[in-house]
TrEMBL record:
Protein name in UniProt: Putative SIT1-Transporter of the bacterial siderophore ferrioxamine B
Topological category with respect to the lipid bilayer: Multi-pass membrane protein
An example Gene Ontology CC term for this record: plasma membrane
Primary site of residence: membrane
Keyword Cytoplasm carried by entry: no
Domain of life: Eukaryota
Transmembrane segments: 35-56, 99-117, 129-149, 156-177, 189-213, 259-280, 295-314, 334-358, 370-392, 399-417, 429-449, 538-558
Molecular function terms from GO: transmembrane transporter activity
Subcellular location(s) of the protein: Endomembrane system
Alphabetical keyword list: Ion transport, Membrane, Transmembrane, Transmembrane helix, Transport
PANTHER family: GLUTATHIONE EXCHANGER 1-RELATED, MAJOR FACILITATOR SUPERFAMILY
Range of residues in the leader sequence: none
Any one biological process term the GO annotation gives: monoatomic ion transport
Amino acid sequence: MEPSARSSFFQKKSPGVRRVEALVAVMTWKDRVRIMVSILVIATVIHINNVIRGAIITRKTNMMQVHGMQAPILIARSIAAASTLPPAARLADVMGRRALVWLSLATFIGGTLLETFSMRLTLYVVGNGLSQMGFTVMGLFIELLIANISSTRSRIAYSLVPALPVILATFVSGLLVEVVLADGFPLGWTIGMWCFIFPLCTMPLMLSLMLVARRRNEGSYCSGTTTSCSSSSPSPSLISTSTPASPRLHRFIRFCREIFWVLDIVGVALIATIMFLLFFPPQFAGGLVSRWSEPAIYVPMMVGAALIPFFIFWEYQTRHPLIPLPLMRHRSVWAPLAIAFFANCAHSLQANHIYVFVHYVLGRPNRESTVISSLDATTSAAVGMVVGIVIMHVRRLKVFVISGTLLYFFAHLLVFYSRYWATRDVEPAVIGAQILLGAAAGFFPYPTLTSLQAGVDQDHLAIVTSFFSALYQVGNALGHAVAGIIWTQLVPFKLVDMLGYQHGTQALLDPAAMTPNEESTGSGLAWAARRAYRSVFLYNYISGVVLAAPVVIFGLLISDPKLNHHQSLVETLPHECDEAVKT
């Protein structure tokens, strides 16, 4: 049973919040420079790894002869990340921000080792989900650290620093992908080497924070409150000291029980189970022989749907829901969350098979396919940094969010036009659509997150940031699920219809055999395979355009407070924030 007495966890500042406030109080501009440079190093590794893994997934599924199963892998990554973020944010508040680093490294290394040695799709999906969980937790740690050390006015410029390496990573990764996907290069080593690279790249950031922590402990900031500032032990609200004679084991058991409820493990397990049961079975229901009538497909989906009322009931009655429900009454909270969900759902629909489209449909080599696939992220980083600098002077967010959402909608229209007419003559249009998507992403996602963070106090910063990122991942999972259903339901029949049964099944098992090239493009089997892929991708792009429309609507609904030099507008300008929320 959940404890009847309400924990004081949210009634006063949590130990993690007090600890980070103590760090910021003694932090100098040199410390901030060291921290941001260290973040830049970590972000570079993450971006290069993500681009390489995108190509490796295609290669790995081809080796397992399950091409088209990228969607289950991407769904597993998104669900694992989404279900990890809210409890990770609570853990950061209870145990401190640095606890996220150790959680990130543990899950990433374990998942990468599974990916390296797995030759079955199930193990590979689990490993990929764990490694993505590690990257996601590290991303949350970086977002929280930036939010703690920056003001609302400069936060977007700070937040774009981790995105800058994508400009270099896009082109470097193109060269690396060309090397690692070459015949004879050990694919296992390509994955496994990150077990050493990623932990090493986190060391500069940890050392920078340790230097600040040592100065904090030596200074006078924590005098009189040494226990709460310096100690890494949990809050007294979590481990009761009212009975000094109680055994250490009993205190530890009580601590674990409190952590269980504060992290809402039951709610996390329920939402992860629901998403797995609803999103996964349809990915295996397609093919030349439909499996929708099999109990293994529809029974899990029925169970997942039946669990939704139980999840809602649990969240209403638990004392520590995944997100404090009173916050959801404010437009400044639910509008940015809705933007995160719909924007990433629409994006993942068109991005799910972008590498496949460029490589197999347009017949471009690995290096060029990787670069084109990453152009939107590159443009987003460049445009976003310019927007962040402009916002520092304008001090308003809504005009940029509205402009970005409108541009995002028109970018999806261009994606629909350019990729549906998939011939070499419109390749510049495909590249232009990628660039326009990136430009739109530079205008509204970061200002939207800043608007959300500015509307809450320090105590709720971690949980709303994690919930924003979680809905980002849920949107990705839903988009990948829809794209996967479209692929598995339509591609097999289109290939068999256009190529015949023998060549159609060959294209399903080995798409490289049907890859257009200089000799084959425009004739024979390659031309028929390209038409089959193009006709299926059309449904992805139509779905993306439909889901981009709510992004524009919710962009009109976010609040527009004036930014200042403080970490949160709630603590410094409460009346202005309240008016911004109501209007």
